[in-house]
Amino acid sequence: MKPFSYEQAASPAAAAAAVASRPGAKFIAGGTNLLDLMKFQIETPTHLVDVRRLDLNRIEDTSDGGLRIGALVTNTELASHPRVKRDYGVVSRAIVAGATGQLRNKATTAGNLLQRNRCPYFYETDLPCNKRRPGSGCSAIGGVSRSLAVIGTSQHCIAQNPGDMAVALRVLDATVETVRPDGTTRAIPIGDFHLLPGESPEIEHPLVPGELVTAVSLPKPPGGTHHYHKVRDRASYAFAIVSVAAVLQKDGSGRVAFGSVAPRPWRIEAAEALLPRGPAAVVETAFAGARPTPENAFKIPLAERTLALVVAEGRA
Amino acid sequence: MDETNAFEVNRRKLMAGSAALATLNLPSGVEAQALDEEAPRVVVTFTINGHLQRLQLDTRVTLLDALREHLHLTGTKKGCDHGHCGACTVLANGIRINACLSLAVMHDSDEITTIEGLGRPGALHPMQAAFIEYDAFQCGYCTPGQICSAVALVDEVKRGVPSHATGDLTAPMTLSNVELRERMSGNICRCGAYSNIADAVSKVAGEML
Ligand SMILES: Cc1cc2nc3c(=O)[nH]c(=O)nc-3n(C[C@H](O)[C@H](O)[C@H](O)COP(=O)(O)OP(=O)(O)OC[C@H]3O[C@@H](n4cnc5c(N)ncnc54)[C@H](O)[C@@H]3O)c2cc1C
Ligand code: SF4
């Protein structure tokens, strides 16, 4: 790791101001992604603002029947909360499908949403990667790409968003709440929170420097049955090859998002409207315009089969 | 308040400390960090296995390195150093975490329990005793992490923490063999002692749940 100075933030606004006022400063929450990347010198912050002791660790009911989850609520706490288990089961399921007990105890809601990608070349510091070194090129295009995205990519980056929890939050229409260094707050729909790579793959979310995620809020429960099915190379403790988060209603309608196939949780509302016509119709529309590589083209039929499994589970 | 300033020490003190450290036979990474004169340092106070400890550390020192290299509590093992293997599992305020993916300074005022703090020869924790009884290890390198993880997971089940193997999320939790294996999946055993580990954990969990 490169040397860095460290402080504990006294308030959310002070944390935002502290990061904004020092070039090279970053927030640290659980540290399970940031420290991993710092050990590889992929991330080299010169100053860390530790936000873990801020009062952002509660889960509260909202006046409209929804739930507001503090940014520092751990993945374990969120998955275990009685209302989450009862009303938002897709979130519990997605969280426990990821990482391990130890990591989930440390990982936070905001840190999970902001985890970086798992492209093998992003981790290979002596090879070009536009996310790690903007403008250096993309080693994955024409390289090993089995795990990477099939849609939403650009000629500059084909990395997938590897997170599980975010896929569940996407089907629930969650909102990400933030405070900016000038003290103003805003709410970002989860669908706009992860950016597509386009011309600038190094820019992964719309946050301004120093903007602190304070909470994630969920609208009132959608009812229905909740599903998260993750296909991976081993039965536990591995990132997804393809995942499906779904909330299915008795009348055959529902909401569906796919994970690990795109740079963001992939939900196409026009596609999920076709659920009554079956998984093939949904996947055909959701993946229209996909540009898979020969190595990862299998993800599209796999997405269809995974959705078929989830739909069958919903009927059972 | 900028707490870093309060923690910064002057250059002379730092060099004296570095020189002292350089004479010790430390692993190269640790030595390199100790000798980095420009690297900011912090004072960390935490309770390790019931003893209050105060250390002055390079901000980069992980909880794992603080335990092993600074407090010489070498029961906690360094495997991958990236959160993959679980050999470094310790309890922070009773919760299991990977000590390699946490900075020591992030644990100021925390209570840390390592394998040395769970029990001692003659006064073993039931989980330690069960690992011996069931021959739940071969080389033993992953064992401290396995035991800390197992102790914490019993508590997680009691608190209603679900796992990927949980059927009905809202039903009372039980610890079937499948559940147990899923919940222990963050602790890798390269010798493959899993069957005996599962037996040892089941025995103790059966008594504690
Ligand atoms: C071995 C291993 C396996 C894993 N497997 C999975 C898996 O299967 N599925 C999965 O989804 N994930 C997996 N993960 C990733 C894990 O979920 C993330 O590391 C974790 O969620 C990150 O949360 P954190 O609080 O530790 O974030 P940190 O590491 O503290 O931070 C991550 C990023 O978010 C920023 N940040 C943190 N908090 C805030 C805030 N409040 N506002 C603004 N920025 C903030 C930080 O500056 C940093 O850039 C795995 C990780 C490891 C190490
Ligand atoms: S796909 Fe993205 S992350 Fe991977 S090498 Fe290309 S630019 Fe880097």
UniProtKB/TrEMBL annotation, chain A:
Q: Which residues cross the membrane?
A: none
Q: Report the InterPro entries cross-referenced here.
A: CO_DH_flav_C (IPR005107), CO_DH_flav_C_dom_sf (IPR036683), Diverse_Substr_Oxidored (IPR051312), FAD-bd_PCMH (IPR016166), FAD-bd_PCMH-like_sf (IPR036318), FAD-bd_PCMH_sub1 (IPR016167), FAD-bd_PCMH_sub2 (IPR016169), Mopterin_DH_FAD-bd (IPR002346)
Q: Which UniProt keywords are present, listed alphabetically?
A: FAD, Flavoprotein
Q: Which PROSITE patterns match?
A: FAD_PCMH (PS51387)
Is this entry keyworded Lipid metabolism? no
Question: Start and end of every FAD-binding PCMH-type domain?
Answer: 1-223
Q: Which GO terms describe its molecular function?
A: FAD binding; oxidoreductase activity
Q: Enumerate the PANTHER family for this protein.
A: ALDEHYDE OXIDOREDUCTASE FAD-BINDING SUBUNIT PAOB (PTHR42659:SF5), XANTHINE DEHYDROGENASE SUBUNIT C-RELATED (PTHR42659)
Q: What is this protein called?
A: Molybdopterin dehydrogenase
UniProtKB/TrEMBL annotation, chain B:
| Annotated Gene Ontology cellular component terms | periplasmic space
Q: Residues in domain 2Fe-2S ferredoxin-type?
A: 42-118
> Known Pfam families for this protein?
Fer2, Fer2_2
Keyword field: 2Fe-2S, Iron, Iron-sulfur, Metal-binding, Oxidoreductase
Source organism, top-level taxon: Bacteria
Q: Identify a single GO molecular function assigned to this protein.
A: oxidoreductase activity, acting on the aldehyde or oxo group of donors
Q: Which InterPro entries match?
A: 2Fe-2S-bd (IPR002888), 2Fe-2S-bd_dom_sf (IPR036884), 2Fe-2S_ferredoxin-like_sf (IPR036010), 2Fe-2S_ferredoxin-type (IPR001041), 2Fe2S_fd_BS (IPR006058), Aldehyde_Oxdr_Iron-Sulfur (IPR052914), Beta-grasp_dom_sf (IPR012675), TAT_signal (IPR006311)
Q: What is the name listed in the Swiss-Prot or TrEMBL entry for this protein?
A: 2Fe-2S ferredoxin-type domain-containing protein
- Native source species: Methylobacterium tarhaniae
User: Which lineage ranks, top first, belong to the organism behind this chain?
Assistant: Bacteria, Pseudomonadati, Pseudomonadota, Alphaproteobacteria, Hyphomicrobiales
